[in-house]
């Protein structure tokens, strides 16, 4: 069985689509998958079991990237084509079955929309794939003998960034005597590039003993590192979704973006909202004390959280 799976150009949406892939792999153990995704999201799938081919989609003017993709996949008969981009390409291919996600914004969490493409309920949770090499690198990078608090102070939009001083206060509240992660070491994660480095710089300067992993990891390596952490706290970003998919207790920080659509999804994952209109609140309206309280409550919970759970 051969499956063509067309998914997002963005890391966060790509991570959310992994649950559907995991479901398909369990339903069809002998299936082989071709994944078409944005270049920045390739690492989400590069260690995926049953992966046959990974096709990066380079966006071009006039939608010519779809023509390029069609040319690469048109000369094969597919058993199933899943298109989460809502394009017309699925109808231009030889396929026994097609499933195309409706485009446009609509109420409800993005994970539910993805699952509805194949009529699956409940929606399968995202997963994170990495291999022995990534596990070994993660073990070598993180300090031994103490829990690790991972911080994600970067995002792809400046309005989504929590003030650096709040991250510093949060780190102190969680790791000081009596804190929820007393004695924990700290790792700071972020993506490649000067913008990510600049966003993380004030946090790294205030935490000189932290492990600096900003721009140092590809996505499978980041997933392996996150899987070894006791807690991740970060802005609404692809890294936040990757942490939750890796099974790490995850706190996502939300202000000007809708947690109702993009809250992290995992066994222990929670969105904490800034005070103000949901999806249009300033990040400065979220206090470090509140985040520390929610982190402590999340770590203490014996039961899994609900899908896309958020607190305001």
UniProtKB/TrEMBL annotation:
One of its GO terms (cellular component) is cytosol. Keywords: Glycosyltransferase, Transferase. The lineage of its organism: Bacteria, Pseudomonadati, Pseudomonadota, Alphaproteobacteria, Acetobacterales. It comes from the Bacteria. Pfam families: Glyco_transf_9 (PF01075). This is Glycosyltransferase family 9 protein. The keyword Aminoacyl-tRNA synthetase does not apply. It comes from Neoroseomonas marina. GO terms for molecular function: ADP-heptose-lipopolysaccharide heptosyltransferase activity. One of its GO terms (biological process) is lipopolysaccharide core region biosynthetic process. InterPro entries: Glyco_trans_9, LPS_LOS_Heptosyltrfase.
């Amino acid at each position: 069985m051969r499956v063509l799976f067309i998914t997002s150009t963005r890391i966060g949406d790509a991570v959310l689509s992994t649950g559907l892939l995991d479901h398909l792999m369990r339903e069809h153990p002998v299936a082989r998958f071709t994944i078409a995704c944005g270049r920045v999201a390739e690492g989400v799938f590069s260690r995926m079991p049953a992966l046959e081919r990974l096709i990066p989609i380079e966006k071009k003017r006039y939608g010519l990237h779809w023509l390029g993709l069609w040319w690469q996949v048109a000369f094969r008969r597919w058993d199933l084509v899943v298109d989460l981009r809502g394009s017309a390409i699925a109808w231009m291919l030889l396929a026994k079955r097609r499933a195309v996600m409706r485009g446009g914004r609509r109420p409800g969490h993005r994970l539910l929309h993805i699952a509805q493409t194949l009529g699956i309920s409940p929606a399968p949770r995202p997963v994170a794939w990495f291999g022995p090499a990534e596990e070994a690198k993660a073990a070598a990078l993180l300090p031994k003998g103490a829990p690790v608090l991972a911080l994600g102070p970067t995002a792809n939009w400046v309005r989504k960034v929590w003030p650096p001083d709040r991250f510093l206060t949060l780190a102190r509240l969680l790791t000081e005597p009596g804190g929820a992660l007393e004695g924990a070491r700290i790792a700071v994660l972020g993506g490649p590039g000067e913008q990510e480095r600049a966003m993380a710089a004030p946090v790294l300067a205030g935490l000189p003993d932290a492990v600096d992993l900003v721009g140092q990891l590809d996505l499978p390596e980041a997933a392996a590192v996150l899987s070894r952490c006791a807690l991740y706290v970060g802005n609404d970003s692809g890294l936040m979704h990757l942490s939750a998919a890796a099974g790490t207790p995850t706190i996502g920080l939300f202000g000007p973006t809708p947690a109702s659509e993009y809250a992290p999804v995992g066994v222990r994952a929670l969105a904490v909202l800034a005070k103000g209109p949901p999806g249009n609140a300033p990040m400065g309206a979220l206090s470090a004390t509140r985040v520390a309280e929610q982190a402590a409550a999340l770590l203490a919970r014996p039961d899994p959280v609900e899908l896309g759970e958020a607190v305001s």
